[in-house]
Design brief:
The structure is a single chain. The protein is mainly α and 514 residues long. It is built from 23 helices and two strands. It is 72% helix and 1% strand. Helix 1 runs antiparallel to helix 7, helix 5 packs parallel to helix 7 and helix 6 runs antiparallel to helix 9. The structure holds beta-D-glucopyranose. Beta-D-glucopyranose (BGC) binds next to helix 8, helix 16, helix 20 and helix 21.
């Protein structure tokens, strides 16, 4: 569909929107920022289930796990220090996301990606060479800084480069790379656990430098987004990039709209204060609640602790890591479903279907564990029940991978007006990382105290969030990013906060009650 402006369902405009080789390539390179995020999620769970790693850095956890072999299954790995190793990264990432917001806005999206890659590389060197817990945790903090930068800038970059009609698909490249990173880490864990001498975990932690190198070099060759170039006064460059990514000279309408959005944005000096204004209430609520709910699906219980969880239900070392590889594969392939469907079926349909599937799977998983281990946490799971459990965990992961996983990053990055987009994305990253930290830090204790009820706890949240989506999330598929305000103004509830005349959401034109 080259040329001409077409009025879409929301009453707004759409612009030339075909997939060009250039946009595909730039988005592919930028998505590799997801690799560092994913690699890290996958590697820590595996490493913390390796005896040699535990013996070297967390001997008390190792001793406890050994001593508890035949007693309470729910509590054998419960250690705050061990969880701190996993979750310290997320604390660093959440603190960094605010700095990253300014770098992203003032210097452009690409330099934020570059900073992310560089710090992540430093962290991987420190971790691979670690000789004590301090070095390990320092390394994790640097990795966290890297993730903070990358997760702030990459989703924004993708949403701004993509033509509206393909925005969902291209943005989900980030999540796809995240799942590839997780899977690669799972496979590397599976391989390194058997390396004689017990130093295999060093390879796993050190190899994080590879995805870091990809995004660092990638960021250097990428152009910045037209929106960011215009916002920083490089209008000619912006037009050139726009012509290149859209594959046509007929980009005037889209360009004019970007300039208008940028003029409105430049009238705003304090994005952090502005974003709290009434007219941004809907976007702010959604951008904060979506990552909050994403983590309350309980996904990282599986992602971080799948091997530990599988050990808990009675699999051996190898079988546990193998089961983690299986969930990693499901996670990756199911994300492709989302890529294919998101711009056709829309965000809401995926959220509602995926949420329901996850709700049912959580109930089944909780029940299977309850039947086997009861509240005392003693017993052994039969092989067939253990595999049935793996099956439902896979159904749960698949549901996540085509709904809350990708959409948890896509939706916050596409709902804001330019002037507060970067600030809004930081809020999304910050909420996501805070919740990831809390769940990462408390899962082993929660499992120990809530037992199988933990899975019902997450199922309860699934119910709440699916209802929230049904009532409060407007459909954003195919709507140009600069026209998003129309969607909010037409919503049965949020319409009270936003009026259609606040075209790009900000600046001189005001909305209700402001
Ligand atoms: C989430 C991560 C999660 C991953 C799993 C991401 O969207 O933010 O917390 O581990 O998906 O694929």
């Amino acid at each position: 569909m080259a040329g001409g402006v077409v009025v879409n369902a929301a009453g707004g405009k759409t612009y030339p929107g075909r997939m060009t080789a250039f946009v595909f390539f730039t988005c592919l390179v930028a998505s590799s920022g997801g690799l560092i995020f994913g690699y890290d999620i996958g590697i820590s769970g595996g490493v913390t289930s390796m005896d040699s790693f535990l013996k070297e850095f967390f001997p008390s956890v190792y001793a406890k796990a050994e001593a508890n072999k035949d007693t309470n299954q729910y509590c054998k790995f419960d250690s705050q220090l061990l969880t701190l190793f996993t979750s310290s990264l997320y604390l660093a990432a959440l603190a960094t996301s605010f700095v990253a917001a300014s770098v992203t806005r003032v210097f452009g999206r690409k330099w934020s990606m570059f900073c992310g890659g560089l710090t992540f590389m430093a962290g991987s060197v420190l971790n691979g060479a670690a000789t004590d817990v301090l070095m390990l945790i320092m390394g994790r903090i640097l990795l966290g800084v890297g993730v903070g930068f990358a997760n702030q800038s990459v989703p924004l970059y993708l949403s701004e480069m993509a033509p509206a009609k393909l925005r969902g698909m291209l943005n989900i490249g980030f999540q796809l790379m995240t799942t590839i990173g997780i899977l690669a880490a799972n496979l590397i864990n599976f391989w390194t656990v058997s390396i004689p001498g017990g130093w295999g975990w060093r390879i796993g932690l050190g190899l994080a430098g590879v995805p870091a190198l990809i995004i660092t070099v990638g960021a250097l060759v990428l152009p910045d987004t037209p929106n960011s170039l215009i916002a920083r006064g490089y209008n000619d460059d912006a037009k050139k990039v726009l012509v290149k990514i859209r594959g046509t000279d007929d980009v005037h309408d889209e360009y004019d709209d970007m300039v208008a959005a940028s003029e409105e944005a430049s009238a705003i000096e304090h994005p952090w204060r502005n974003i709290l204004e009434r007219r941004y209430r809907p976007q702010l609520t959604v951008a904060a609640l979506i990552p909050f709910f994403q983590q309350l699906t309980g996904i990282n219980v599986i992602m971080f602790y799948a091997p530990v969880l599988f050990l808990t239900i009675g699999f051996g070392d190898d079988a546990s890591l193998m089961a983690a590889v299986i969930t990693g594969l499901v996670n990756m392939f199911a994300t492709v479903v989302s890529i294919v469907c998101v711009d056709r079926l829309g965000r809401r349909a995926l959220f509602l279907q995926g949420g329901t599937q996850m709700f049912i799977s959580q109930i089944v998983v909780g029940t299977l564990i309850a039947l086997q281990f009861g509240t005392a946490g003693v017993g052994e799971m039969s092989r067939s029940n253990a595999w049935l459990l793996v099956l439902f965990i896979c159904l749960y992961v698949a549901g996540f991978a085509w709904s809350w996983g990708p959409l948890g990053w896509l939706v916050p990055s596409e709902v804001f007006a330019l002037e507060v987009r970067s600030a809004g994305q930081s809020i999304a990253v910050c909420v996501n990382m805070t919740l990831t930290f809390i769940i990462g830090q408390s899962f082993l204790t929660m499992l120990c105290t809530m037992k199988f009820g933990l899975f019902y706890f997450f199922a309860g949240w699934m119910f709440v969030m699916t209802t929230f989506i049904a009532l409060f999330l407007p459909e954003t598929k195919g709507v140009p990013i600069e026209e998003m305000n129309l969607v909010w103004s037409q919503h049965w509830f949020w319409g009270k906060y936003v009026t259609a005349d606040t075209q790009h959401g900000g600046g001189s034109r005001r909305s209700n009650g402001v």
